[in-house]
Specification:
homodimer, 411 residues, alpha/beta, Carbamate kinase, VC0802-like, 2 domains, eight-stranded mixed sheet, 12 helices
């Protein structure tokens, strides 16, 4: 088998952890597999580099930021390779440039365009374990780029796709993907399998195990992702295409996200192009708008509500204030004491009663819903942030997520 | 003009120093020059990386050491480029690989084979200041190599040669090359010019301003090196080919080196191949032997004395003990309380009385000479280390080095 293994920054954050990861990699190799390892920068390296940088300038060019930050993974791949060498296996570290991870030109947020196979295949054929720098690539000008958030997960999946790997193992500090946050619901259960779409919704919703980018990439290329613990050898959660849609669980998991703020725009003219005017301004400032709800109040005016990340709230309000007159927004409000609670499940689309079950569970706990948004495989509600955990517990119980599901046996 | 400027690790050791270097680079650019800057890793970076490395392994593969250590310059080039950008000039940092500094495959001690011009010329034509990582290159396998000691100076000179630069400025914490160590002789005088060969001898002898490798490279390609202070704008010392040999100073400088140990081998058979046997064993362990003196005592046996760096003494003695019986060395001794004192001057070759003047000066101070070695442009003596500084002062005075020389006006 060809196995891609990805270890994050905390897994290689200290010398002894690097040696432990080396042991795990070598074990996998000695089970008869070819192994390509992707690692992030060690624990605090990136923060330390940024701290140093801000002592030099407040206004770093992005090309030079990538030059700087890409050293973080270069340090961790060399150290991990040394530790693997100590255990007696042939090993080579490779930067993104050396592999040939080609990206676009968007420094600090580059997207992978293509991955060369030649160097990796040659080194694998030579019996080497490969240790590849995550998070980084190279553009057409031969300049170093970094991939931004979720970059190392994405590197791992992209290498798996390029090399047609059998599995891409993502090692984390949890045992896998859970039906909900175990810190909120102690009965939360580890899922054996989950579909790409479910994982995408959960990842977007703040489950924080896998970055959505990597899941999207895995879905496109059909790469199975095995999310598992770096602390034990238990099987984790396999993210893969559902084999039998009918057998899919109705609700797979419950997620909540407290990094949410809600903005309400009142008495907005009901004219074509108004929404475009508003959300173009926000996109121009790189503000990611999540839920958008427009409710027709009267014939000629609307209320528009939307949510943004709480950290973007201040900037969002500045923009709203600036465009208020131009767009003819009469007034607006905001609320940052809110949270988003969602249920996700690929089987939801064929089970029309799911939404009403959700609303019932929340009503029984006297939880008021401020906004509702649905997709084919998820339903999200905005609630008071003080009620978020209660909502999660109620939903987890309502959908029997603490009990093994009959259809969760296809792994 | 095209100017190459090289700044060492201490010049870029702190954020405020990086900004000061940026100012200097930008000043040079604004005087109408094209500028390529070569920088070393910041102050302690290399030591910190090594410390981290030894927490992971005691036995690092050299390829991975190069992968690790090359991050040091990558950090400093990105930060310096950010500081230059802050001052409003176009700038790009380039790693050794991005420039195309091609080396052989000897990891941690690679030698430069070739330097690509294309990328640098393209970026210079675009109006950019270039900030290039010193000390590193790339081999035929596309692997990162480092150049070992003196690497950054050598990078600067190699870039100057490749680009046919007008001058290569090496910035240090001293004002230039002195007739001797000013800490030993307060009257020591800064030289306006010095030939490559004189500089080579002084560099080898521990003057520690320029690494011999870079001087050798500059001599081959006829690149003038300007050694100057990073703290002021005074002209420093120009290292270049002598224009009028007859005018060359008899003695240019006095150097001393206390990193010396002397080994004496007694009653060694006077047979062909013996010296080869001994010094092959030392070379095999990478021990650099400096002076070698063989004096015929009787018909069939010799005494052989040689010096090594003091840090290599223990290993040297181990090797001597190991080969003693095989080579038939009857006994041996060592002395680490010695130092080497040398005078250097391109005019020496045409002035036969120089050696006797040197011996006279040392005899007048009752300094005993334990070994003597001469070349066309230098004479070195091994003396007791406690007498080394006294010897330097006596020689500096004897050759009137504290006075401006009539022939030191060709700069």
């Amino acid at each position: 088998m060809l196995v891609i293994q990805k270890f994050g920054g905390s897994s290689v954050g200290k010398p002894e952890r690097i040696r432990r990861v080396a042991k795990r990699v070598v074990d996998t190799k000695r089970q008869g597999n070819d192994v390509v390892v992707v690692v992030s920068a060690m624990g605090d390296t990136t923060d330390e580099l940024l701290e140093l940088m801000y002592k030099v300038t407040d206004n770093p060019p992005k090309r030079e930021m990538d030059m700087l930050l890409s050293t973080g993974e270069q340090i961790s791949i060399s150290l991990l390779s040394m530790a693997i060498n100590d255990l007696g296996e042939k090993v080579k570290s490779l930067t993104g440039a050396q592999v040939g991870i080609r990206t676009d030109n968007v420094h600090t947020k580059a997207r992978i365009v293509d991955v060369d196979r030649d160097r990796m295949q040659k080194e694998l054929a030579g019996g080497n374990i490969l240790v590849v720098a995550g998070f980084q690539g190279i553009n057409d000008a031969n300049d170093i780029t970094t991939l931004g958030r979720g970059g190392s997960d994405t590197t791992a999946v992209a290498l798996a796709a390029a090399l047609n790997a059998d599995v891409c193992e993502i090692f984390t500090d949890v045992d896998g993907v859970y039906t909900t946050d175990p810190r909120v619901v102690p009965e939360a259960r580890k899922l054996n399998t989950i579909t790409y779409d479910e994982m995408l919704e959960l990842a977007h919703l703040g489950a924080q195990v896998l970055h959505p980018r990597s899941v999207e990439c895995a879905k496109i290329y059909g790469i199975p992702i095995h999310v598992r613990s770096s602390f034990n050898h238990n099987p984790g959660t396999l993210v893969k295409e559902v084999e039998n849609m009918e057998k899919a669980m109705v609700v797979t998991g419950v997620a909540h996200d407290i990094n949410v703020a809600r903005i309400g725009l009142f008495d907005v003219p009901d004219k074509p192009g108004i929404a475009w005017q508003i959300f173009r301004s926000l996109a121009g400032e790189n503000i990611n708008v999540d839920m958008i709800i427009q409710s027709a109040m009267r014939d000629d005016i609307n209320d528009i509500s939307f949510t943004v990340g709480r950290t973007d709230l201040r900037k969002t309000l500045e923009i709203v204030e600036k465009i208020k007159d131009e767009v003819n927004i009469k007034s607006y409000s905001h609320d940052e004491d809110v949270a988003k609670v969602s249920i996700v499940g690929a089987g939801m689309v064929t089970n029309p009663g799911v939404a009403s079950l959700m609303f019932e569970a929340l009503a029984q706990e006297s939880i008021n819903l401020e906004m509702i948004s649905t997709s084919e495989i998820k339903i999200s509600c905005i609630v008071k942030s003080t009620q978020a955990e209660k909502a999660v517990r109620a939903l987890h119980k309502k959908f029997n997520l603490d009990q093994e599901q009959p259809c969760d046996c296809c792994s």
